[in-house]
């Protein structure tokens, strides 16, 4: 028997292969459902976006959130307290450290309408280079312009250089250099003394360079002597910027006792915490001079009600002390009764103070000064002595 074969076998094979693929697909559909087929048939345009697109989307989202945050209205900064027209003026003069001190004082008295801090410092100035800035020639004009209640000085960090004395250049801290430097400091303090303006001279801190620190100690001695000779006061801040061994430190306790960075990386400049700490040292003598002007409520009381600033009153007010008065004193007019003295009528003979025992000090039974039960007695002078020991009766 002859079986007829198809004339075109190739046309049938694809159909058989297609049927086989359809059977396999039906098997996958039976096992996994149509999800796998759908993912396999998903066009390339709908596949997962590349990483770069995701980054762009993320950045656009973050940009949108930041723009929304920027559009959110922020609360306005707190306005500083308006100063009174007749507020007491604290004039700060000196070099760049004085400028930092002025910032600290402005923060300290920000809530005091009766105190105004005026900064007239010159960063690169000192007493050596009077050809650059002559403080002894300029201070009078500054005083006329500002009419300060008191002056705070902090200067000397730029003075570690040669000074021309009688046409000759002298090295720092030589004998001739020190003599001329002291004269210039004394002249400056004397100008303030002649005008009757209180002076607070702030000492210099330690620095990173050891030789500079040594010079600052020598300068502080000159400032202290000159300021006190002119009737001013010297504020020593040295301990606030060194460790327990007296060595320079970058960080230390701030004005609240919390650890903080006090100096810049150069070991010279001050941070905000360092400026505020120096101002904290100066506040104590300042507050004594300013009195009620530092009160935040001074604007309601009125500056005209404040007493005048008096540094050294000529006559101190007498101190009225109340004497202790005994409750047993019928007159209640003095404290001698409580102190053990005896008040006798006028004309009555007074006992000898060295030998007589006051009446109210005579020992009474049961009183604290009765020593009869303990074997002690008090003589006429009030001294306590032991009585002679007597033989005790024999026990039976």
UniProtKB/TrEMBL annotation:
Source taxon at top rank: Bacteria
Alphabetical list of CDD domains matching this protein: SGNH_hydrolase_peri2
Signal peptide: none
InterPro entries: DUF459, SGNH_hydro_sf
SUPFAM superfamilies named among the record's database cross-references: SGNH hydrolase
Chain intervals with Low complexity compositional bias: 55-72
Location of region: Disordered: 35-81, 347-396
Gene3D superfamilies: SGNH hydrolase
GO molecular function, one term: hydrolase activity, acting on ester bonds
Name assigned to this protein: Uncharacterized protein
